[in-house]
Amino acid sequence: MIALTGLFLCIFLIVHLSANSILLLPEETARRLYNSYATTLRESPLIKVVSYVLYLSIVLHMMYALRITLANRKAKPQPYLVNKSNENSSWTSQNMGFIGLLILLFLIVHLANFWARIKLGIGDTVGLDASGQKDVYEITYHLFQNIYFVLFYTILMIPLGLHLNHGLKSAFKTLGFYHRKGLRIVAKISLVYALIMAIGFGIIPLIVFLK
Amino acid sequence: MIQKLDSKIPDGPLENKWRNYQIKSRLINPTNKKKLNIIVVGSGLAGAGAAATLAELGYDVQCFCYQDSARRAHSVAAQGGINAAKNYQHDGDSIWRMFYDTLKGGDFRSREANVYRLAELSSPLIDHYVQQGVPFAREYGGVLVNRSFGGVQVQRTFYARGQTGQQLLVAAYSQLYKMKRAKKVTIFARHELLDIVRIDGKAKGIITRDLVNGKLKRFAADAVVLATGGYSRVFRLSTLAIGCNCTAIWKAFKRGAFFAAPSFTQIHPTALPQTSAAQSKLTLMSESLRNDGRIWVPKRKDEPRAPNEIPEKERDYYLERRYPSFGNLAPRDIASRAAKERIDKGYGVGRLKNAVYLDFKHAIERFGIDTIQDRYGNLFKMYKKITGVDAYKEPMQISPAAHFSMGGLWVDYELMTSLPGLYAIGECNFSDHGANRLGANSLLQASIDGYFILPNTINNYLVNILEEQQPTIEHPEFEKVESEVKKHIDRLLTINGSKTVDHFHRELGKVMWQECAMSRNKKGLESAISSIEEIREAFWTDVKITGSAQEMNPELEKALRLADFLELGLLMCTDALQREESCGAHFREEYQTKEGEALRRDDTYSYVSAWEYNKGNFELHKEALTFEHVQPAVRNYK
Amino acid sequence: MKVTFKIWRQAHSDAKGEFKPYEVNGLTEDMSFLEALDHLNEHLVRSNEKVIAYEYDCREGICGQCGLFINGRAHGPHPHMTTCQLHMRSFKNGDTIIVEPWRAKAFPVIKDLIVDRSAFDRIIEQGGFISAQTGTAAEANSILIGKKVADKAMDAAACIGCGACVATCKNASAALFTSAKINHLNSLPQGHQEANKRAIEMTAQMELEGFGSCTFTGACEVECPERIPITNIAEMNARRTKAKWMG
Hints:
The complex is a heterotrimer. By secondary structure, chain A is mostly helical. Chain A is about 75% helix and about 0% strand. Chain A has one domain (about 1-85, about 90-210): Up-down Bundle (3 helical TM bundles of succinate and fumarate reductases). Chain B contains 17 helices and 20 strands. In chain B, α3 packs parallel to α12 and α14 packs antiparallel against α15. Chain B has helices spanning about 15-25, 30-35, 45-55, 95-105, 110-130, 165-180, 245-255, 320, 330-345, 360-365, 370-385, 440-465, 475-495, 500-515, 520-540, 555-580, 600-605, and strands at about 35-40, 60-65, 80-85, 155-160, 185-190, 190-200, 200-210, 215-220, 225, 260, 265-270, 295-300, 315, 355-360, 395-405, 410, 420-425, 430, 605-615, 615-625. By secondary structure, chain B is an alpha/beta fold. Among the domains of chain B are: about 270-400, Succinate dehydrogenase/fumarate reductase flavoprotein, catalytic domain (Flavocytochrome C3, Chain A, domain 1, Alpha-Beta Complex); about 475-605, Fumarate reductase/succinate dehydrogenase flavoprotein-like, C-terminal domain (Methane Monooxygenase Hydroxylase, Chain G, domain 1). Chain B has a 5-stranded parallel beta sheet with strand order 5-2-1-9-17, with helices on both faces. A 5-stranded mixed beta sheet of chain B has the order 18-16-10-19-20. In chain C, the strands form 2 sheets. Chain C has a 5-stranded mixed beta sheet. Chain C is of the alpha+beta class. In chain C, β3 and β4 (about 75) form a beta hairpin. The longest helix of chain C has 16 residues, at about 230-245. In chain C, about 35% of the residues lie in helices and about 10% in strands. Chains B and C meet through α3, α5, α6, α11 and α12 of B and α1, α2 and α3 of C.
């Protein structure tokens, strides 16, 4: 279940990043396209269904992760006095739970920044742009003038990248893909994918800040 | 006395004996089988195979091993392979040829009928293991591969990389657990047999020590099967697992089972040499290496040069020189003795000058490194792990080491010892290998004893005791034996001397290796007997064991095993002294030809020595070996 | 050579354990690690102390009985090696060497460095075999198995059951052990008949024993003395999924 929800979230991230890259366009075009994209997201019934699947995926992913982490802890009640796990495995693979928590922290802030304001209407009202759509671009732009938010959004993409790299290739194995050469390719794809996601998401706030 | 040594060979021509036996043997109906309880001690190929098969037949089986799991039994360590007269290679093999090779390899000191049965059942055994999922080596087309092995000129050895023993054992162990799941077998791991209970002249149970908490436990049964392996740890340094011991068969011996040919011990030619006094074990490198490796020593004594710097013409390929037709594939006893001869003369190599070279240079040139890697990759890796040397670039150093016990409890054709109701199967019996075992025949013998023979012979005994009242563990004899065991343990623990168990084991090993290994003589054996007496005396007055009997106590376990080894050492030397001839692994220096080859004396010594324990004394019985179908010939591997 | 061992001592399964330091002199580089412990034990006997309990049998890397967690690694500092194959030349004079038992809920400590690995036997009991009675086999070459298939089965079958995979896994997962057995038997034609049942029952027992689940850290395949690849676990997952759908 972790693998399935994880894979779905991975696909979601691709869409999310493609949309976010609109922010890199010149300001006027970006504002127009970004806002209309945001409106489509809010109003399309299909997207509505997908969004519920998304929420559910996030919740399930977390719940199962929590359950599995607790069960695994129970399977190893006594730790070693010395454990050089870095010599036989990656730090990431040993700390997926912790990394996941960092991502959760990010997610909470991220949702508070956008989802809460735009969808739930908590906090300041969202202004409208020239064509009468909610000016999501303005919110984004405004948020990323704050250096602390920029740093937060950028730095926390590091754990995201790590999590995605290990998560994606492991998901394939969990789901039973065992072709040896294939798995080597999957590992490479995971790395490239994780790099693109981490750098892509990480660089956008920076660029917006510097614009 | 003669009565006691009835080998019960069935009538008829050699080819029909086993079939005739089966036709005549008595059967037990399934309902009655359920009521019969059999104890199997040991969980190697013989033990696990027997326990699983007996359980399949419907008997109620209890299986014991001292290790933490049945899968650890030392069958696991056999590397090279298992022989079978399948003639898949179309190279002229047959049951008869395999029978003859084995009998000849054993220097005509085993029974024709037993050996023939071994060869006869080898073929169905391979079928059996394939069915159980053993991943034997295959050709690209899917058929099984064979290789040749020391002492024969046909390719009849089946193998699973260099881990054949492990693969066969895992198969046997999994069958054992299959029957555990079927609730027909109970497995007692970490239980060591400490004595056998004999009631009215029959084996009726055992006393074990639970190695986790030290508790002594009684188990009663209708028959007891020992499958406890070899005893070469009497030399301390051997290729055996550290826990291998003679306690079960020694207790059986003391309870009335005869011990046959105790001195017949195989010294394996291709082990890694000893490098220090603290060494606990000599690692075996599979004999299969001799298929492609060439053995040599420098022609100059105390050669200081590294092996690769010694030119071809200054190397002495002594096996090829002395035995041109078999060369590096000469049988183990011959190869070991030839190595000893070179080492003793000062041509040995390595730090302690106690090794010879095993060189793959020519094989790598001829077949390419990939082929050699495919054949022996894991052995080369293992060699590197232990010695730090890359054998693809530099020859291996090998040395002879104590290995297999051809001797063991005397058994008849039915594998029953001279104590009724007590059976011995696998390496712990003396049956098929004579004075020397051929490579890849040990897995075979252990498996066949356990899977095919015992399950077809034990019924002949059990059918007679069906009517008898089965003694329970409340029987006074159980009480008595248990208290003897307890006294024995307490006595050891109260000595509280100054030396460790290992100290005495090293002393014993030194004497045994010096006087009762590759070559023996009267004077040496006599002095060995008195030395061992002294060591034994010292052990019983000066050994120190810490900890108590009521807990897990590895030191106590070692001491209990050594106490029996010290007595066994005496019997081995006594046996070697008695046999005034050279045959197979038993080489008496007084009896050799001018060329230094073994001189067998068929006129006087064509018998199996079977020793009876009589209040501390060993009494010799002789089972004459008659050869109706082959003429004992002088073994010639030239 | 002189080293200090810091060794876990625990009198029995219910006792509280602790690390105790032991300074050991007179070692040589050629000694195996277990021989160094033997040496220490002889010294302990002479000083009237109880010996340290640790496991071994064959001392040639095949029986799978030895297994210690040495300086933070299962079977010591090298990959693909058993404890008995480790030699003192891997350490330096004056080193402190920490020796711990395998840690896992499913492997309770029995004494000192000895743990109970019978959970493995119980996993095998749930289908790690081919249900065929002695005496029912057909001619061996009547089952053709290509070299590739046989080799792959052998790769998995090589498992020695030492438990290093569980010991090193942060989740104490027995997935590598279980998958090796399932794949060995299920990939051979002899094992096809019971393939689905085997995959389901063995994995169920694995979970029942209290082992954790695999998160693919990859530590197990590094410590495995037999180099059993972690792809076996992926293959087991596939076989189990297939078995669940196919019934």
